[in-house]
Specification:
The structure holds 2 protein chains of 2 kinds.
Chain A lengths: L1 H11 L1 H23 L4 H17 L1 H14 L3 E5 L2 H14 L4 E4 L3 H6 L1 H7 L3 E4 L2 H8 L16 H11 L9 H18 L2 E4 L3 E3 L4 E6 L3 H8 L2 E7 L3 E2 L4 H13 L7 E5 L7 E7 L3 H5 L15 H5 L1 H4 L12 H11 L16 H5 L6 H16 L2 H14 L2 H18 L18 H9 L2
Chain B lengths: L2 H6 L23 H11 L3 E5 L4 H8 L6 E2 L25 E5 L2 E3 L4 E4 L9 H4 L2 E7 L3 E2 L2 H8 L6 E5 L4 E2 L7 E2 L6 E7 L2 H7 L2
Parallel strand pairs in B: 1-11, 2-3, 3-6, 4-7, 6-11
Antiparallel strand pairs in B: 4-5, 5-8, 9-10
The chains are: A alpha/beta, B alpha/beta.
Chain lengths: 446, 200
């Protein structure tokens, strides 16, 4: 199992692993503070869930309305059935604009599509402008978190990178200095860019607009300078009305970073005067999930990252241990809905503690879904001896007499069980010599 | 088959009969101005209540070193009108931009920017510093009220701004001044008649 193997490597450096764990827990704690101050927070989650359920149920209608209204505003809408088509469309727009330089703000969808690589092979320079994404881009890595792309790096590593790539002073790892250096170097890129690409947080059916939320201002700066704006969105990003934004803007930043709202919440409603505005609407396996009753609500995800920050496995294994663009609990579901043969190990990257479900702002039953993938996997892939073992275990655990006998056996076999793998990486409880019942009887029923 | 048809094959295109509504009892604030100022501070911005006639004074006190000041409005101080520039790129050396907000939101300190006469949206993020003029009486409780008030988008690009641009992408350390403004000051104008008169 891939995830396990990579996690083991990750955990070798105990100090680093503990630092990573704490860094994410800190974000989780900020989320708790920001949600507690709103008495109506639970109602908001419920409302968000209902809006998403309703929209996905009628997605054809809302998407069609979105297209109609966006087109009316002068936006050009494109549909892409898969990642290849998305990349092809993006390239065509860039080529038609005679452009060579693209600045891009954060978009997990373009990561999913492998857009950077595709465009670079065709001679287009793509610059990721979100600081975290720029850092991982300069290192030739992929983001390890959907909101905090460079969460796996220590500032000393970033200082070294900037020393090589941006001419930073040697050994200066002050985040303020490094951020400012990136600002200056990226400012030039912004001013040179012909095309600005962005992701989409919400697409509003009623008005044909898209909403992009950032803290850095990179989406706004890019779009307001470049002649062409290309926004990429999955089909599930649509919400019905402008007033629905009231619900989602209150949930997103509080869940993501513990802010009351992101610094910039930008509504792109029409092309600016003399400019072009394109939106590429991408399926890439999403419409298929709608037919899947158990997993379709994974499409409600608003990519806040709260489930990553809270997950005891993610915090202790890092984004690189997940073999899918989106790591963490929600990523494990999305990976499995796409391809449950090669990604099955991710369904096991969970303690099933349910913390992800508890913090999810749109109330996706994340841990139950992971469990259901395990069931699917075990019924079709598990080795014969484990299947027999599970059946046996079921018999024992559902029969009191067998269970009592088993406990006795367990006491004697404990030293052995420890060595066949069950005690690896976890404490297998040491059995007591006498059960509670036995002690009770010996004391009170003489 | 066209890609659109392939995608829509799996989707329900029927018009929904009705949308579910949960009545949310949203938090209201006794003193919206005070809450707004508190949350503004949390977002990294500063806020001041002042009389309209003192705007120029305040600007000069806050940013005595600002050389290139841009605004589509006229003040008693020397400013550049961005609308006279051909490209937004010419705004790259602006130290300070003075803009106007439609309204503020108490729960998060955000202000809504919807300037119909501004040709270059870049001014909101390219300027090193921002002064945002806001009618003190325009502060709403929360984002529900905000979007109710907006009701439809009439400009190509409108936005909420909550404090200066920021990032915590390096070891979770908050750094103010990522790509957009490095500082934001909101001036709450207490005698709003003149504000409406001049800036519309």
């Amino acid at each position: 199992m891939n995830h396990q193997k990579i996690s083991k490597e990750f955990l070798k450096d105990k100090e680093y692993a503990s630092w990573h764990d704490k860094a994410l827990w800190y974000v989780r704690e900020k989320r708790d503070q920001a949600t507690k101050v709103l008495g109506e927070y639970e109602d908001l989650r419920e409302e968000a869930k209902r809006i998403k359920e309703h929209t996905i149920e009628h997605l054809g209608y809302y998407l069609e309305e979105f297209e109609k209204n966006a087109t009316k505003n002068g936006i050009k809408i494109h549909y892409a059935k898969d990642s290849y088509e998305h990349n092809k469309i993006a390239y065509q727009i860039i080529k038609d604009a005679n452009a060579k330089k693209v600045v891009k703000s954060k978009s997990m969808l373009t990561e999913e599509c492998g857009l950077n690589h595709y465009l670079e092979n065709l001679g287009i320079e793509v610059i990721d402008t979100d600081l975290g994404e720029r850092i991982v881009q300069l290192r030739g890595e992929a983001p390890t978190h959907i909101v905090l792309p460079a969460i796996h790096l220590k500032k000393e590593q970033i200082a070294k990178l900037f020393e090589e790539k941006l001419g930073a002073k040697k050994g200066k790892s002050d985040p303020k200095y490094l951020t400012n250096l990136a600002r200056e170097s990226l400012r030039e890129k912004f001013l040179e860019a012909d095309v600005a690409m962005t992701g989409v947080n919400f697409a509003i059916s009623q008005s044909g607009s898209i909403v992009v939320c950032t803290n850095e201002g990179n989406a706004d700066l890019g779009v307001s300078l470049a002649k062409v704006h290309i926004a990429s969105m999955g089909i599930e990003k649509v919400i019905p009305t402008i007033s629905d934004l009231g619900v989602f803007t209150r949930l997103l930043a509080r869940s993501a970073t513990g802010q009351a709202i992101t610094t910039y919440t930008s509504h792109f409603n029409a092309p600016q005067k003399g400019k072009e505005f394109h939106i590429i609407i991408v399926d890439n396996g999403r419409s298929k999930i709608i037919k899947d009753k158990t997993h379709k609500n994974s499409l409600h995800c608003i990519r806040c990252g709260a489930c990553l920050n809270t997950c005891p496995i993610y915090r202790r294994s890092g984004g690189k241990s997940y073999s899918y663009t989106i790591p963490g609990p929600i990523g494990s579901i999305l990976a499995n809905t796409k391809d449950n043969k090669n990604q099955a190990d991710l369904a096991f990257a969970s303690t099933l503690c349910g913390s992800c479900t508890d913090v999810c702002p749109v109330k996706i039953d994340i841990h139950s879904q992971l469990l259901s993938f395990r069931k699917e996997y075990i019924s079709s892939h598990e080795s014969w001896y484990k299947k027999i073992f599970y059946k046996l275990l079921y018999k024992i655990l559902s029969n009191q007499r067998l269970y009592t006998i088993f406990l006795k056996l367990y006491y004697h076999l404990y030293p052995l069980i420890k060595y066949i793998g069950w005690g690896e990486g976890r404490d297998i409880p040491k059995p007591a010599k006498k059960s509670f019942k036995e002690i009770y009887r010996s004391r009170y029923e003489k | 088959m066209r890609s659109k048809d392939l995608i829509f094959k799996n989707l329900n295109s029927k018009k929904p009969t009705k949308k579910p509504i949960v009545a949310i009892k949203d938090t209201r604030y006794e003193n919206r101005v005070e809450t707004f100022l508190q949350n503004l501070k949390k977002s990294g911005a500063n806020g001041y209540e002042i009389k309209h006639s003192l705007i120029e004074d305040k600007i000069q006190k806050l940013y005595p070193d600002a050389k290139n000041i841009a605004s589509i409005y006229e003040f008693g101080i020397k400013t550049i009108d961005p609308n006279t520039l051909n490209t937004p790129h010419e705004l790259k050396d602006i130290d300070l931009a003075i803009i106007k907000a439609e309204f503020g939101v108490a729960e998060n300190g955000a202000v809504y920017i919807n300037e119909k006469n501004n040709l270059h949206q870049a001014i909101y993020t390219i300027s090193k510093n921002l002064i945002i003029l806001l009618d003190k009486k325009s502060i709403l409780d929360n984002m529900h009220q905000a979007y109710e008030k907006i009701s439809s988008f009439r400009q190509s690009n409108t936005l909420f701004i909550s404090g200066p641009s920021k990032t915590a992408d390096i070891e979770q350390t908050l750094v103010i001044g990522a790509h957009g403004a490095k500082s934001v000051c909101v001036l709450l104008i207490s005698d709003n008649e003149s504000l409406k008169l001049i800036y519309n």
